[in-house]
Amino acid sequence: MVVTEIGFADVTGMSPRERAREIIKKCAHPDYQPILTDYLDRAEFECLRKGWGHEPHLLWNAFDMHKHLNEHGTMKIPKWDATRSTGSP
User: Fold this and answer.
1) Which of 12, 14, 32, 39 is most buried (most C-beta within 10 Å)?
2) Is 79 among the domain residues?
3) How far is CA 60 from CA 1, 41, 87, 88, in A?
4) 13-40 pLDDT, tens per residue?
5) Could you tell me if residue 78 is inside a domain?
6) Is 48 part of any domain?
7) Maximum Cα–Cα distance across the chain
8) What is the DSSP string of 29-70?
9) What is the mean pLDDT of the segment spanning 41-50?
């Protein structure tokens, strides 16, 4: 179970991918829901294409959010860098 100031998500018995979607839907701040959903969609697409589907993640994109926080004071990244979504340098 996950509880935030936004909401509560009971993720009991869900797969990691299902958990991620439920937590985004019920616990993430509304300003971040589209950003996080887009991140998860990209991660699922790229990772399933490579056979890494159990817990999809694109660390380079997650790090971009942290870099944006450091440089701009917010993790609300305006758009993903297309060259980085595939893991290309």
Assistant:
1) 39
2) no
3) 27, 15, 7, 10
4) 999 999 999 999 999 999 999 999 999 9
5) no
6) yes
7) 38
8) -TTTHHHHHHHHHHHHHHHHHHT--SS---HHHHHHHHHHHH
9) 92
Return d(Cα 4, Cα 35) in angstroms, integer: 18
CA trace torsion 15, 21, 22, 28 (10° rounding): 140
Looking up tokens 């009971």 gives 10
Give residues with Cβ within 8 angstroms of 44, minimum separation 6. Answer: 17, 53, 56
Cβ-based neighbours of 67, under 8 Å, separated by 6 or more: none
In a domain, 44, yes or no: yes
Confirm if 60 and 47 have CB atoms less than 8 A apart: no
Number of domains in the chain: 1
For 78, which DSSP code? Answer: S
**Boundaries of domain holding 52:** 2-72
